[in-house]
Write a structure and sequence with these properties.
4-stranded antiparallel sheet, 40% strand, 250 residues, alpha+beta
Length: 250
């Protein structure tokens, strides 16, 4: 909180013409240990006019928390002769591993579709960068399928009334990180919007790190992928042999 008030004082002295947006986050590092069940992040801050007066009543706040991007291949299943097989597929170059949006009002009432697409305000406006031939209807179907799949895993979220504004100046939003989040750098971007126009934005970051035995395994798999694969195969063979011996004794 001391950092927040110091930033507010600094911006007040700067005399900027645009509204002043001062964001903060409850923790800048999330530690993933054995038995990690998820975490709750509190994103909060203040929005002020250049004169230092309360501006919350004139502005909507939208917070976007985005995880590291990754390439994803999404395959569609079809039932053929009583069996489910892979059919059509689509690859996305830069799909975020985690994406959460919280807003002070439904986003459709804050901005138009064009502005939402520019700033990726909301799941329908998420830019997934498909690879290969662009067939609008097919890509829209696969994009909707990916969003639905990630949403059911808790990795994509949208709360249209997830931001509360207090005293017409302070705002806060809570975003849940599930236990299956990917490690890496997460970007929390806050937007101040009035009359359908983004007038201020600010960014903070969160590091999600593995610690202990989990981190050792993750580092080994990334730095020595070939040997990690050999050990994984050997471990599977040994476990299979042990299981076979146990069943033989029954």
């Amino acid at each position: 909180m001391k950092r927040l008030f110091a930033l507010i004082a600094l911006f007040l002295l700067a005399g900027a013409r645009d509204p002043l947006l001062v964001p903060e986050i409850s923790q800048h590092e999330v530690q993933v240990r054995q038995g990690f069940t998820g975490a709750q992040l509190l994103l909060f801050g203040a929005i002020l006019t250049p004169e230092g007066t309360r501006a919350g009543q004139d502005y909507d706040i939208v917070v976007v928390l985005k995880g590291p991007t990754q390439s994803i291949i999404l395959r569609e299943k079809q039932k053929v002769a009583g069996m489910w097989i892979n059919a059509a597929s689509s690859e996305f170059r830069s799909a975020p591993s985690f994406f959460a949006v919280a807003a002070s009002r439904p986003i459709g009432k804050i901005v138009d579709d064009k502005t939402a697409a520019i700033y990726e305000l909301g799941l329908p406006s998420l830019q997934l960068s498909p690879i290969g031939p662009i067939r609008p209807k097919e890509q829209a179907r696969f994009a909707a399928g990916l969003v639905d799949l990630m949403s059911r895993q808790g990795l994509y979220q949208q709360a249209d009334n997830g931001v509360t504004v207090s005293e017409q100046v302070l705002y806060q939003a809570r975003i849940a990180l599930p236990s299956n989040v990917q490690t890496g750098t997460y970007t929390a971007e806050t937007f101040a919007i009035t009359h359908g126009r983004v007038v201020a934005s600010a960014t903070t970051r969160v590091e999600v790190r593995k610690l202990g035995f989990e981190r050792m395994i993750a580092d080994f798999s990334q730095n020595y992928g070939f040997f990690y694969g050999l050990l994984a195969v050997a471990f599977s063979v040994v476990m299979g042999w042990i299981a076979g011996r146990l069943f033989a004794l029954v």
